[in-house]
Amino acid sequence: MRMMRKTVFFALVAALLSLAASCAMAPVPAAVMPDLSAKADGVYTGGYDGGLVKATVSVALTAGRIASIRIVKHDCSPIGKKGEAVVNRVVERQTLQVDAVSGATGSSKVLLKAIEAALSGNPQA
């Protein structure tokens, strides 16, 4: 009977660890700031799929500067919504090399990658 309890216990622990691992977010690479000096004024849209967190943003460029960033879509947990504050940091500092929002690092990084994708593309017609 005691052996049966141990077996059930270890099976339960293994199942819980497997479930936790399946919910883990894959590492998001650091965002790289594209050269904006040759970019035309306009609105650029881009997105990034980080697995558990996905984001689409719209970035307005004026005179080689980021004028504004609008989050079009941000699929994340309620805690991840805090990461949306990272877009204000990007606009203020004019770079993607900003600190992630504490407690919402995954969402912050996905949003930064979405901004990178937008700035690396072509403006909307």
Q: What layout of secondary structure does this protein have?
A:
Elements: H1 2-23, E1 42-49, E2 54-62, E3 65-75, H2 86-93, H3 105-120
Antiparallel strand pairs: 1-2, 2-3
Could you describe the 3D structure shown?
- The protein is α+β, with helices and mostly antiparallel strands and 125 residues long.
- The chain has one domain: Alpha-Beta Complex (Sufe protein. Chain: A), CATH 3.90.1010.
- The chain has three helices and three strands; from the N terminus they run H-E-E-E-H-H.
- The chain has helices at 2-23, 86-93, 105-120, and strands at 42-49, 54-62, 65-75.
- The chain has a three-stranded antiparallel beta sheet, with helices on one face.
- The chain starts with a helix and ends in a 5-residue tail after the last helix.
- Residues 17-23 have low confidence and may be disordered.
What are the key terms here?
single chain; 125 residues; alpha+beta; Sufe protein. Chain: A
Number of domains: 1
Low-confidence sequence ranges: 17-23
**Helix fraction?**
25-40%
> Strand share of the residues?
15-25%
Which H/E pattern describes the elements?
HEEEHH
The biggest sheet, with number of strands, parallel, antiparallel or mixed sense and barrel status, is: 3 strands, antiparallel
Q: How many helical elements?
A: 3
Globally, the shape reads elongated
